[in-house]
Amino acid sequence: MISFRDLRTPEDVAQWLAGLKENWPQREEVMAHIAQQIEALPFPDPHVVELATGPGLLAEFLLTKLPQITYTGLDFSELLLRVARERLEPFGTRSRLMWVDLNKDEWLAQVPNDNQAIVSMQSLHDLGGEPQVDRIYGLARTLLAPGGLFLNADLVTPPGQDKPDNPGRRSISRHLELLKAHGYARVACTLALGDFACVVGFAPK
Question: 25-202 domain in CATH 3.90.79.10?
Answer without folding.
Answer: no
